[in-house]
Design goal:
By secondary structure, this protein is an alpha+beta fold. The chain has one domain. The strands form two sheets. Strands 1-2-3 form a three-stranded antiparallel beta sheet. The protein has a two-stranded antiparallel ribbon with strand order 4-5. It is elongated. The termini are far apart.
């Protein structure tokens, strides 16, 4: 069995949505094995509809937000791929 390290970061939020990026590395973080973007919607199960985050949660999200310099998943993937040397 292999030991891996998983990192996650909040890359976007608004009044009812979150987007997180999660990355899985080998044990010493020298090799990226996979990554995923996940979107979450705040949903009120009692009222059965989308809901806004509470003010304290919005503050928490603002405090931990770590945006990335990519708009699409494909752009982000390119940032992880090794660049070929131009001679």
């Amino acid at each position: 069995m292999e030991t891996v390290t998983i990192q996650s970061q909040l890359i976007y939020f608004d009044k009812s949505n979150l987007k997180a990026e999660m990355r899985m590395y080998n044990h010493d973080k020298s090799e990226l094995k996979s990554f995923i973007w996940c979107s979450f919607v705040h949903y009120d199960l009692l009222n059965l509809k989308r809901a806004n985050h509470a003010d304290d949660m919005m503050q928490l999200f603002n405090d931990i937000l770590n945006p990335i310099n990519a708009i699409t998943f494909e752009e982000r993937l390119k940032q992880f791929k090794p660049q070929k040397e131009v001679k």
